From TrEMBL:
Organism for this UniProt entry: Candidatus Merdimorpha stercoravium
Sorted UniProt keywords: Signal
Entry superkingdom: Bacteria
PROSITE patterns (alphabetical): PROKAR_LIPOPROTEIN
One Pfam family, short name: DUF4876
Signal peptide: 1-22
Protein name (record): DUF4876 domain-containing protein
């Protein structure tokens, strides 16, 4: 195991010093031990046999996020694999992320803890801070080059003050150094909400192994029809028109594809090829949720698409007792995903497994506006620009770290 670079969302750790209440907010010493998986289990996934602890994970970035203030504290694990910090009393989310080589292969591992309390030990307890049991990271999903650059779901208000949603789009990005083909890629929106107060147990029951979608649309092609150059975008529009001319915010005449529902309320733009509609929640037109409280993800099925869909078909029973045929997607088939949730969420009701996205990003400043009609997006951050000029986007499988919230839509380019 060679290169180590981990970033972990973790909320409370133990130091050797005491806690003082005399001056300002109480600061508590905290510590967390991080170990690499043992050599006998170098690669494993959630819901399988747990890995045994191996050598200390040295140099991991550990990020503590205060759920009330959103203040972040980042430290690195030391030579013993221990992360140490001093945090104000409160509730924290903690994320650990890492990339290292095992058996000649680069693997991405991560671990997360949410809603962890950091409180000063009671006087006379003998404790000097807060500590947590050692953790062993889990194998994360890898993008294979495709990432979601941004999802413009919120819609906007027209100059006349009318709600407008038809300028929605999803932008995929070739984050690799090779030409990738978009043929047969599937774009999905989760059925499950991410709001902290919405349990939706009938959908949560499938996690973390499967994700239930409300929308499945597929790029057509035989495998080599739709090349996307390194560092280029693939734009999938709701309607491929210049929405600025009719009250929207984005010109989508240059979109690569559009999803079209054969209904009088939708518009089929002849110049923009249609996606293949595999499944949609609506019998009329399928829009992205304007409330930024869903997850979006991409995958590529193999084999016959009809057989694949039939293999997924599951009867989902709602609390009312009614049921609906839906298509839970195996988590291991997901290439990349992003969760949108209200700002300040604890994310105790995630829509994606942590191996796909351990965090979330947001549009809007509070749960009241829900990011709807704001005309803004969450856009993936730039990690670096290569010597050849190619822009590499950040992809740690943690949308809290990977995305910039409340950005202006930019479907065709990357903001450096």
């Amino acid at each position: 195991m060679k290169r180590i670079a981990f970033s972990f969302l973790v909320a409370a750790l133990l130091l050797a010093s005491g806690c003082s209440k005399e001056n300002g907010p109480v600061r508590v010493p905290v510590s967390l031990q991080v170990n690499l998986p043992g050599d006998d289990t170098p690669i494993y996934t959630p819901n399988t046999t747990r890995a045994t602890a191996g050598e200390p994970a040295v140099g991991f970035d550990v990020t503590f996020t205060n759920t009330s203030t959103q203040a972040e504290t980042t430290v690195q694990t030391d030579a013993s694999g221990t992360a140490r910090a001093e945090l104000e009393e409160g509730v924290y989310n903690i994320f650990v992320y890492g990339v290292y080589q095992a058996n000649g292969k680069e693997n991405v591992y991560q671990y997360t803890l949410t809603s962890q309390s950091v409180l000063a030990p009671a006087e006379g307890s003998g404790a000097t801070g807060v500590t947590f049991p050692a953790v062993i990271p889990e194998l994360a999903a890898v993008s294979g080059g495709w990432v979601i650059k941004e999802v413009y779901n919120s819609g906007c208000y027209s100059p006349a003050g009318k709600a407008y949603s038809y300028d929605q789009y999803i932008c995929l990005y070739n984050n690799s150094d090779q030409v990738l083909y978009a043929d047969s890629l599937v774009v999905a929106m989760s059925s499950k909400f991410t709001n902290d107060n919405m349990d939706q147990g009938y959908l949560s029951q499938f996690l973390p192994g499967r994700v239930v979608p409300d929308l499945l649309i597929q790029v057509p092609g035989n495998g080599k029809e739709h090349p996307v150059q390194p560092g280029a975008c693939l734009v999938i529009a709701n309607q491929g028109i210049n929405h600025i001319e009719v009250g929207g915010k984005v010109d989508l005449t240059r979109a690569d594809f559009e999803w079209y529902d054969d209904h009088r309320l939708d518009v089929d733009v002849p110049e923009v090829p249609n996606m293949i509609n595999l499944y949609g929640y609506s019998a009329t037109i399928n829009l992205l949720s304007v409330q930024s409280n869903r997850a979006y993800f991409i995958l590529r099925p193999t084999g016959d698409i009809t057989a694949w869909m039939n293999s997924l078909k599951t009867s989902v029973v709602y609390p009312s007792g009614t049921s609906k045929e839906m298509y839970p997607i195996p988590a291991e088939q997901i290439i990349d995903g992003v969760q949108l949730a209200p700002k300040g969420s604890v994310l105790n009701n995630p829509a994606l497994p942590s191996a796909v996205d351990v965090g979330y990003t947001y549009v809007g400043e509070n749960d009241g506006d829900s990011g709807a009609r704001l005309g803004l997006v969450a856009s993936r951050k730039v990690k670096e620009k290569t010597a050849q000029g190619r822009i590499v986007l950040q992809d740690t499988n943690n949308s809290t770290l990977d995305f910039l919230p409340n950005q202006e839509p930019s479907p065709y380019s990357v903001k450096e």
